[in-house]
Structure formats: C-alpha cells, structure tokens
Design brief:
mainly alpha; three-stranded mixed β-sheet
Length: about 150
C-alpha cells in the first residue's frame, strides 16, 4: 500500500510519462544483502530500489524509505543513468521529499521521521529537514528544485 500510494503521488507531481522513463524494481533486503535502503542502477537500463523493511515496520517507514530512493530515480530521469554520485545536496532533497510524503500520507508519523532525520549522522539527511520546511512541504517545489539542480556546485 505504501509503495503504491507513494508512487501515485509522484506520478501526479512529476507526470506518469516522466515517472515511467526509468524502469525500476522494488525489493526488500534480506540478511547479508548490504547497505539498505539504496537505489542501484543496473547496466544503465533500470534501477533496483532495495528497502530495509522489517516485518513489524509501519507503512510510514516503507513510504519514507521508498520516497527517498524514488527521488534518486527522479534525479536519474533528469540527469541520466550515469549521473554523478549523489551529493549532500541531492541527499537533502531526497530526505525533504520523504518528509513531504510522510506529512501528506502519514501525518501522525511526521514528527518521528523529522526527529530521525535531524539526528542522523550524515549531514545531507539532516539538511533535508529545514529544506522541507523552507519549501513549505510542497512536492512541486521539490520538482522545481531538481529541475534547476546542478552537480557542479
């Protein structure tokens, strides 16, 4: 449910044709499957989104992880499958997008995910919290930010 609701939200904001440019598959990690969540391009043709969901995790957690990784797929749709490695700024945008999804679809869980992002050891994720607020929790503003994004900063 969370994956479908999140994907539908992105389809409305970015457009169905745009969101279907990059084929992607969603998988959940199993033991010893490496770093999760992560989105990995495969052979320059598709992206595997690997989540790290446990049996008792909430739909909100699924949506949060999926939205973050799906935003990386959006970056690939704009900048190509061989785009540069995600920068701190890209990670902040992906985290802001995740927070927007939680605020829209699972508002009762918002404060938990906001605190989690702020306390994360990676500053790129932390920067997503004030960015989401600065953008008034508006995913169309995320779209505009990605459209004007530059990796040469």
């Amino acid at each position: 449910n969370a994956v479908c609701a999140t994907k539908s939200y992105y389809d409305r904001v970015f457009g169905l044709d745009f969101m279907n440019q990059i084929p992607f598959y969603v998988d959940n990690a199993t033991a010893d499957s490496g770093c999760t969540p992560i989105s990995t391009p495969v052979l320059g043709k598709l992206v595997i989104i690997k989540l790290g969901i446990k049996a008792n995790d909430s739909e909100a957690r699924v949506a949060y992880q999926f939205a973050h990784e799906l935003t990386h797929v959006v970056f690939r749709a704009y900048f190509g499958m061989d785009k540069p490695r995600a920068t701190e700024d890209e990670e902040a945008i992906c985290t802001a997008a995740s927070l927007i999804i939680i605020k829209e679809l699972y508002p009762d869980h918002f404060e938990t995910f906001e605190r989690s992002a702020m306390s994360h050891s990676y500053v790129g994720y932390q920067k997503g919290v004030p960015l989401a607020e600065e953008l008034s929790y508006d995913m169309t503003k995320i779209r505009s930010l990605i459209e004007s994004f530059s990796y040469s900063k």
